[in-house]
Every structure is written in C-alpha cells, then in structure tokens.
Amino acid sequence: MASVKPADPQAVVIFGASGDLTRRKLLPAFYHLFVEGLLPEGFAVIGYARSEMSDQEFQEEARSAVGEFGRCDASGEQWEEFRRRLSYIPGEFENENAMENLREHLESTDREQGTNGGRFFYCATPPAAYPAIVQRIGESAMHPDAKIVIEKPFGRDLESAKELNDQLHEVFEESQIYRIDHYLGKETVQNILALRFSNGMFEPIWNRRYVDNVQITVAEEIGIEGRASFYEETGTIRDMMQTHLFQVMTILAMEPPVSFDPDRLRDEKVRVLRSMKPVDPSKVVRGQYVGYRDEEDVAKDSQAETYAAIQVEMDNWRWAGVPFNLRTGKKLKRKATEVSLSFRSVPYNVFKGTDATPLGRDALVIRVQPDEGISLNLNIKKPGVGMELDRAVLDFDYEKTYHTPLLEAYELLILEAMKGDHTLFTREDEVERAWDVLAPILEDPPPVKLYQPGSWGPEEAEELVLPRHWHVTEPRED
Ligand code: BG6
Asked: In this predicted structure, what is the pLDDT of residue 334?
C-alpha cells in the first residue's frame, strides 16, 4: 500500500463522464495528482458518456469542476499541460460494438500521449450500466492487462452482487478489478491499521475482556442533494452501511494480518464478516427525515431510509458479546464520522466512600472527519484538596501536528489502483459476505421511523443501544 514507485503509463477512461461523481471527485482528483507530479508521464483522461460533447467542451467542463470542487488553480501552464491530455468520446453502452470508436481513440492516444497500451477503466455510471460496459470492453478486446474500477454499491443484495461478479469475471481476472469504497482512502481510516498494528500497547486490550462496546457514527448534515432516484432505489443501508460502515468495522475488528500483502489483509476482513450472524431485524432501526417525501422525485409514501442504526455482534474469541453499534444518516445535527471503543469500568471502585466517583468509561475515539484525530478520554484527579475526579482528553490532531491538508480519499485510491495495489479495495468474497449479513433486512425491511432534520435520528435508535448511549465528540471551539 502507498508505495512510492510511480504508476506505469496509462490512459484513463471514465464511463459516466458527464455525471456528478466525475465532476465532484474524479476530475479534481486527477488534476491534483497531476499537479503534485504523482501521475506517470504517459497519461491521458478520456471521458465517455451518452451526452454529445466535444473535446473542448469536456475540457471546459473539467476546468469548471476543478474550479468548483478542486483545491488547485485550474489555470496557467500546468492547466494547459493537463488540458491537452483530456478528450471525450460520446457513445452508447448497450449496443454491440458501441465501443469500437473508443478502442480506436485509445490507440491514437497511445501514440500521441505515450500511454503505451496501459488501460484504466473507471465505471462512474449508475450501477445498472456496469454489465453492458464490461461486455463492450470485452467485445472490443480492450481488457487484456487493463484495470477496472467499480463504484459502490456493488450490487443491491447477495444475488445481484454474485451476478455482477460473474459478469466481471467473464471479461476480467479478479486481479484486474478494483471495487472502490472511498472510506478506505481516508487517512484516518487507514490510521486505524497503523494504530493497531504498529503499537504494542493496544493489542492486549483490544478484545472482549477490556472493551465494553464499539460505536461507529457516520453522521451527515446534508440531505440527498438531488439524488432522489438513487436514494429511492438504494437507501442508506445499501449506500452507507454495507459499504463505508462495514469497511470501518472490519478494520477495527480484524485479527492482525500475517503480512501487509493485500490478500492477507483482506482475508482478515472477510473473516470478521464470516464471524457475524445475519443481522437481527429487531436490532435495526431504519429512519427517514421529515421532509424527504416532499423532495422532487420522491414517492409520497416512500419507505426508503435516510438513516440506519444497527447493532451487531461477532461470534469469535476476540469479540463475543461485545455490541458493535453502527449508525449513519442524512440531515443529522452535524457532520461527524467517529469511531469509539469504550472500555469496561474498573472491576472495583476503590474510591467508594470518598468524594471521587469514576465519571465514565475510558474511551479511545478516532475522529475520521472533521477535526481528524485520535483521543483517549480518561478519568483524572481534579487539582486541589481531596480526591475528586474529572474527565481529561489526551488528543492527537492531524492538522495541528502535520500542518498540511490530507490527501483526498479519491486521490489516494486512484493512485493505488493505477499502481495495481489492491490493499484498499474490496474483494469479491468480502462484498458478497457483507450483503449476506444484511440479507434479513434487505428482504424484509422494518418500517421507517421519522426523525426531524437537525436531530440525531429517530428515538428508537437510542433504545437500541441502551443501557449505553450514542455519543460523538463536541466540535472544537477554536
Ligand atoms: C457516498 C454516498 O458514498 O458517501 C453519499 O453515496 C454520502 O450518500 C458520501 O454522502 C459521504 O462521503 P463523505 O466522504 O462525505 O463522508
């Protein structure tokens, strides 16, 4: 993972080049990587989508995307250099041989941009288009030695994920496939691996003997942002839980891998999923924010969830009996992605009969975003006469320590895939098992509970975790 060797020359094809993901994430990410000198000399981006667009229009679109969502200036010589590597091919996905023109364009790109036959296909279309794209690539024989990136959600249940895996494998080897989940590109998520496996002090306490419960919160302030058709079809469990929250959970719960080889790491993540029983519907709360049904293109009686909380357990020696409480939702009080391990209370309170009462459980908190950092929340003695206890926080803050903005998740993952490293991408069996665990609530989802925008979700989610409570760190004042 994150080796410093440069990627081989390659031409990137973005399918769905006129879509939201391309505009918000992909084009700004490629440009930033280019500015940072992290892309190979032989490099080009080819946009492919149904909409008619000239090369110039696509380049203009890219400039406006970088201006709106990027963090480097899209002007001057550097932009010119990048712009010259952008081109666009309008085309279909469905019709046989529809990608012949793309194949020819790739060949001329090899000559003009020195991309040397390297192929990097990025599927940024709605998932329904993936099978046709894969078939077209195979038909035009563009697949040998190519890499293909598939966006989440990968399928919508176990059966469709298997089907998609089969369709992919008809054309690509597993070693050519990169199933992306951008949470794995977040520095703070990767840092869980560093924290756990490069420090000796955590392993002895990272288990049921010391951990009382684990919480993962991914709270968003935004709503569905005009993605009604996607949300009506998908909902939070498929969009966020099966993907981002499960990824973070497996990294937290996995056994130490025998090495940092991508497959050894992914073996351990799969073992976590295998140790989970299918989710118990009585341990699930689905929520929908008040006002969701008034959004454009949302059904008046929609049962799509914009919030989900689940409690899961793992049947293994490390975690038996420890609840993992996972929640995520839109239009919540504020944006906060946080992981916490709450440790068991002291076995016997030696302060009994004094003024000191232990105030709470020790907790290790990983702030994934914003205010990225790690803190240890402890009881300490309050200064002064007598023995009174107080809460203290030992805090590590990325920004204060490193003074540099973190790499965007998409930038990092694109780079890893271009270099051919699978560590931060999900494997076939992993994605299938994650669907399998959720099958009971996908097949027969419990009714949605309404919650007010700006709250922390439905009240039922509070009951789910009793006698514990959900918590996230208060925002920093400075
Ligand atoms: C995406 C989901 O994968 O992640 C969106 O489709 C969600 O619904 C987004 O808003 C959240 O990502 P981040 O990086 O802002 O936490």
From this structure: 96
